[in-house]
């Protein structure tokens, strides 16, 4: 069957893929290697490439080709690929170049000033820049809403999590809101008289690095197709054929780098196992950010905090730093599963984490929809932290609304993906347990392949072939069902 | 003064510069970081970028713009910049796309097979691929010759060393041929009863690396604008704002990595000190490959093998590996200046090095001009090695004509740059000594800034503003004069 329009589109996306490859490696290099005086030249080079890719994605010939290809006789995966192409095209074309440029300037100014405003607790100074960031985000939300027919916040969230709506989130997070504060109290009461031995440092960086690489091997990361390096903010970058993960080390603490590495390994294995046959086409991309987080959290929360896994991790920790009572499997597991409400999202345990996300969702949604103003954030923040976690945050902006990079960077609509990811991860493990009733015994024995095989079959290899809902149904028999997340927490922390 | 055509050209070259930046960093990454399974995707990405840059350089609008700009009222540096733009445009347009593609295939096949043919001493196997590489190189030489009006070999050499001709080379190398064999004999006789203590290994890689970085600091490398990494074949890559040097380490030997690093540091400082005002324009590029080698060899041969420099290097070596008699300054200097004819060009000392280059020049020139055939190479090689260095190479292809990557990669016309670079380096130091009569005393005292200042003023900051001959006259009062090279060798080795 001849499909000339589709074929031309596929060739364009292959070119986009190749050029994005260089952009991605240069981005990784910027974070992991680049010396300080390289900043300006790299920024100019990256901006040139971004403009080039944008021109390719807004090529005036694309709409005709997309329309023609829709009339061609395509296979089912080709049709799914075309759907993803149209989505990318729509996102690239929805915003005028001038808005994109103003946003780049505003967010980069706001983010740069935020780096010093946060430690200085300077909320008033932050507001000066953030008002402009927000004004532009509202403009963007209005344009995306007009283009997609979604509500403004939903249109923003759709960039990261296609198909998710605030109507659904309100139900999902509304339920969590009901049971979370009580659960936190019960878990804390139960853990109150647990004895936990703290590890004694220092933990030399070289040993931490070796330990992280061993954990990655245990988790099946392919070092022939990727590597681990160091950056200030850990991330998983590169390309599916060559995944570049980063972590960061502190000599006084090793669980941060270790569990951070486990988290990024989940992202990394998803990327490494995307379908090779379709590489370079949007069909082969990871499904969504919640799905991506569901992989990092399947690794970090579901697998690595499983007592069976900890039993296999503990000897590696002892080999790295010498034997300590703190490294006994039972104690290491207690260290990893300690629950305590805190001010900082990225330091939160898996139980209290959702509270941080819900709070941000409940603020950023009315913010971008114009129902509240930036001045209203601190009071809302204080009230919600007290309500959800019983913590007083008044006047502490640096550990409050100034703590995340998302708002200065206008990444509005991203936060929900973290908790959705944790919920999907629990749902995947529930499905695994149905398919493999002795899953826990297998994990106890160190047979982690059963986990990886399930994820490969149901998530990694499926890439963007189906909508998120359809993928979830095919994988687990139902769309997102947060009951699994609650059941997981109850089983692990109260069981 | 309005210069619209020139301004458009300058904007195009700025874009080329930004995109080449990403290409260059990805190339460095490929050699220094990339895991094995990244090969295919990276090759595809690099080919996409090469094609894109080629399309930009062969944009059919360029000839008109170049012609219009030549009529505009330009400043003198703008005019020099326009000259360099035209040169780049001519080189990119001289060869049909199809020839470039066939060459890429043929050289990559030949180079890949050569990696195993060389250790297997398989000259016959090599010839099978090399015949095709040569046929295409001859096609290229004919096209470049037609475009430039130069002889075929000269047209090939002009890509690396604009303005140099084989007529001049014949004179220059003809003289060296006269005095070199006799000089080698005299130096060897003189060194015959020198006592040289060999360093005792092993030399741990971490200490070697630290030593190399200290040597780079001593030589003024700016680590805020570049870094040192490891690759199989050392090179100096990256961009002027962010120079990426590589070296390689062997535990049983440290002078190779150290002097290799010193060599690349010369390349690196040239790049780091190219004029910032013109960055992104061809005017700001390094003048030529011989000039580039003149910087690496100014660092490696002129400065780092100077007894005064060795006195400052020796304590760093002792601090890295512990005190040894071999690390006494006088002994270290004897180690670095040991002269002995050998089979391998890259292992050659500075006295015998020229013989390796002359031999290759005398073979590759008639080869590309069609006066000899690949079958003739071994006999010519044997005869010239015997004549120039008194060594028997019969039947030893792997340490003979199979030793370099240049021919499998069709880099015909490059070899002369190495020796021209050594000659220019000697000429620069002769000019420095005229300008600063106490140069040697200053180097003895560790005042190397006097060297760097001269190079910055006369070479680095001048970039491609003048032709090589004019640059040499401005820097040293004369065009290339190989007498300085001979005088340098006589002073150092017989003085």
Characterize the structure shown.
2 copies of one chain form a homodimer. With 495 residues, chain A is mainly alpha-helical. The first copy, chain A, has 2 domains: 1-94; 104-495, Orthogonal Bundle (Neurolysin, domain 3). Chain A has 20 helices and 3 strands. The first copy, chain A, has a 3-stranded mixed sheet with strand order 1-3-2, sandwiched between helices. Chain A is globular and about 65 Å long. The mean pLDDT of chain A is 96. The A-B interface holds A 15, 18-19, 21-23, 25-26, 29, 33-38, 40-42, 44-49, 52, 222-227, 239, 241-242, 279 and B 15, 18-19, 21-23, 25-26, 29, 33-38, 40-42, 44-49, 52, 222-227, 239, 241-242, 279.
How would you summarize the topology of this molecule?
The structure is a homodimer of 495-residue chains.
Chain A (H helix, E strand, L loop, with lengths): L3 H29 L6 H19 L4 H10 L4 H19 L2 H21 L5 H26 L3 H7 L7 H26 L13 H14 L7 E5 L5 E4 L2 E6 L7 H18 L16 H15 L3 H15 L7 H8 L16 H16 L8 H13 L25 H21 L3 H6 L4 H10 L9 H9 L6 H12 L1
Parallel strand pairs in A: 1-3
Antiparallel strand pairs in A: 2-3
How many domains make up the 3D coordinates of chain A? Answer: 2
Count of alpha and pi helical runs of chain A:
20
Gap between N and C termini of chain A, in Å? Answer: 58 Å
Q: Give the biggest sheet of chain A.
A: 3 strands, mixed
Q: What do the pLDDT scores of chain A average to?
A: 96
Q: How many β-strands of chain A, per DSSP? A: 3
Rg for CA atoms of chain A:
23 Å
Helical content class of chain A? 55-70%
Question: Main interface pair?
Answer: A-B, 35 and 35 residues
Q: Can you tell me the CATH class of the largest domain in chain A?
A: Mainly Alpha
Uncertain segments of chain A: none
The CATH topology of the largest domain in chain A turns out to be Neurolysin, domain 3
H/E element sequence of chain A: HHHHHHHHHEEEHHHHHHHHHHH
Order of strands, main sheet of chain A, comes to 1-3-2
CATH architecture of the largest domain in chain A: Orthogonal Bundle
How does the overall form of chain A come out from the CA principal axes? globular
Structural class of chain A: mainly alpha
